[in-house]
Amino acid sequence: MRKASFKRIFPLISILLALSSLIIIFSACTGSGNENESSGNGKNESFNYSFDADISQYLRYLNPKDSQYKLLVNKKNPLGKNYTPSSLVDIDTSLTFLGKNIELEKYTAMAALAMLAEMKADGIRGVYITSGYRTYEKQSSLWYTYIEKESNAHPDWSSSRIEQEVLTYSARPGTSEHQSGLCIDFITGEMTELVNYGSETPNNPYDIGFAETAAFEWLSRNAYKFGFILRYPESKEGITEYNYESWHYRFVGQAAAAEMHETGECFEEYLNRIS
Ligand SMILES: [Zn+2]
Hints:
This protein is α+β, with helices and mostly antiparallel strands. Helices cover 40% and strands 11% of the residues. The strands form two sheets. Strands 3-4-6-5 form a four-stranded antiparallel sheet. A two-stranded antiparallel ribbon has the order 1-2. Bound molecules: zinc ion.
C-alpha cells in the first residue's frame, strides 16, 4: 500500500521539482540582476543608495533601460538637423538660472529634480540649471557667434584655424549633446563673477570657477547616484575632444553612471568597452 502510493506520488514530486528549478532559473534572469544587465560584469547592484531628501516620486526614473540614454553625441557622431528628443518637459523656472525657460528629456528632468532636491537637503543651495535642451537652430546661432568672435580677435587666422579654435569649446551645429535633451549645465550662486554665464567659452571666470565650488564637489561625489556623469572630465580631453567642463552633466542612468564612477572612464571609453 505504501509502495503503491509512493509510485503514484513520485511523478508528481518530479514535476514539482522540475517546476521549482525553472522558477529559480527564471527569477535569476529577471530579478535584481536587471539593474546591471547592461554592464556585463555580473555584479548584482541594487542601487539602494540612501538619500536625505524624499525623492521617492523620482526613483523610477533614475535607471531607465532604454538604449537612448546611452546615445553618443560628439564630433564624430552628430545628431543631424532633424533630431529632437522623444519627450521634452519644462523645468520649473524656480530651478533655472534667472527663471529661464529650459526643457529637458523627461527622465533626465526627473533625475535632475531628484538630484537638486538632494543637494538642497545636504545644504548645497543656490544651484540652478542654466542650459538644457538646445535646438539645432540655437546651436547654429551660438556657433556663428563664436566664429565671429574668434575672427575679430584673430584677424590674421585662416577660417579653418578659427573653426579649430571654436571647436575646442563649442559644437558644430548637429553635434552638440545639448540637442539630445540628455544633458545639463549647472550654475551656482557661489560664483560671484557671473561673466558670460554658461556660455561654454574658454577662460570664462564662471566656467572655470564652477570647479572650485561646493556644488561641484558634491556633484563629483554624488551625481552618479542619480544617473549623471561629468561628460567632459579634465584628463580626458584627448578622447572627448572637448575642454574640461566642470558644469556639464550627462544623464546615462544609474547603472552606467555607477560603472563610470568606479572605473574613471569617460563616456566614450565606457561605450567602447561595453560595445
Ligand atoms: Zn553644456
